[in-house]
Write a structure and sequence with these properties.
The complex is a heterodimer of chains A (211) and B (102). Chain A is of the alpha+beta class and 211 residues long. Chain A has 2 domains: 108 residues, 2-Layer Sandwich (Gyrase A, domain 2), CATH 3.30.1360; 78 residues, Alpha-Beta Plaits, CATH 3.30.70.1400. Chain A contains 4 helices and 12 strands. Chain B has a single domain, classed as Folate-binding superfamily (Folate-binding fold). In chain B, the strands form 2 sheets. Chain B has a 4-stranded antiparallel sheet with strand order 3-4-5-6, with no helix packed on it. Chain B is globular. The chains are: A alpha+beta (211), B mainly beta (102). Bound molecules: zinc ion.
């Protein structure tokens, strides 16, 4: 009997056509990137164990886990708030099973973990008009004062749940926003973002998560 | 209408789902309390079906399903839609040693 094997592929396998779309100006107004090869784990503190969970996170990642809607960069991962006493761990994939094992041990007895690595798609929006494109489909207030670098939000975009957070500004000085979306909705959200970006010109591509 | 979630901040009401009056308390009768079946039935009938039609402020359950997925209790004026307060329902998050439900 032939060995059965799973072949993982991007949820944007069809939707993402790398290159320039929309207005062909010299510089694209929006840069849209799918970030692949992530390990993504949902951490939910158990009843009465929020303090233990925070302690374990600090020990493993060297930073305080976010207790308000924020994204915090730790030693080996970024921790993104995803609700009261819960957060999502995002790490570039190196050795997935040992990365998950290390977390299982660290949070043993304090939190429940759920591996979402292939359950979510990470889409990153940047460029001088990135914020304008997002404003067309999101009701979040993305003004610098309301949503600075490191801010995070669970929100709904087109009736779809999105974990939204702002990363450090790009080399061009413009804001960079990341969106985590269920893989089955990634295609739809991608088209929404591309459509919103056409008038500014949009460069699309795929990249590996940076270590 | 925007609702200020105690966890997420102010959001559009499309992210929330309305459940209803947060005041009714589930009747709690011990199995062998000797309570008459009629009284138990009346209490449950009241709890399940009967609601006050408040004109003014009432306590309501709202669910922030498009955000932090927390149950909230809001004091809303049914006449003006003014929100006086929005707080987490008991049992939300893991910090408090309270089980879900009131
Ligand atoms: Zn919320």
């Amino acid at each position: 009997m032939a060995d059965f094997s799973w072949n993982t592929q991007s949820p944007l396998q069809k939707a993402l056509v790398a290159g320039r779309h929309g207005v062909a100006s010299a510089q694209a107004g929006v840069t849209l990137v799918e970030v692949r090869d992530l390990v993504l784990v949902q951490v939910m503190a158990r009843r009465g164990k929020a303090a233990d969970t925070a302690k374990a996170a600090k020990k493993l990642f060297g930073v305080d886990a976010p207790s308000t809607p924020k994204a915090v960069a730790g030693k080996t991962a970024t921790l993104v708030w995803s609700g009261p006493d819960q957060f999502t761990v995002l790490a570039p994939r190196t050795d997935e099973s040992s990365q998950i094992d290390a977390m299982s041990q660290a949070f043993s007895g304090s939190a429940s973990l759920s591996d979402q690595s292939d359950g979510r798609c990470l889409i990153r929006v940047s460029g001088p008009r990135g914020r304008d494109a997002i404003a067309k489909f999101s009701s979040l207030d993305l003004h610098d004062a309301a949503f600075p670098v490191g801010a995070a939000a669970n929100t709904a975009v087109d009736h779809t749940a999105v974990n939204f957070y702002r990363e450090a500004n790009g080399a061009d000085g413009h804001p960079v926003y990341s969106m985590l979306v269920f893989t089955s909705f990634a295609d739809s959200l991608w088209h929404t973002i591309v459509d919103s970006s056409l008038e500014y010109g949009v460069d699309t591509s795929r990249t590996r998560a940076a270590a | 209408m925007r609702i200020a979630c105690p966890f997420c901040g102010e959001r559009e009401n499309g992210e929330f789902t309305y459940l209803g009056d947060a005041s009714p308390k589930r009747p709690n009768f011990a199995v062998d309390s000797g309570e008459s079946p009629e009284r138990v039935e009346d209490a449950f009938y009241d709890y399940v079906y009967l609601r006050d039609n408040v004109a003014g402020f009432m306590r309501e359950y709202w669910y922030h399903g498009g955000g932090c997925r927390s149950w909230l209790i809001a004091e809303r004026n049914t006449v003006t839609h003014e929100f006086r307060s929005v707080t987490a329902a008991p049992g939300v998050g893991a910090s408090k040693p309270v089980q879900a439900g009131e």
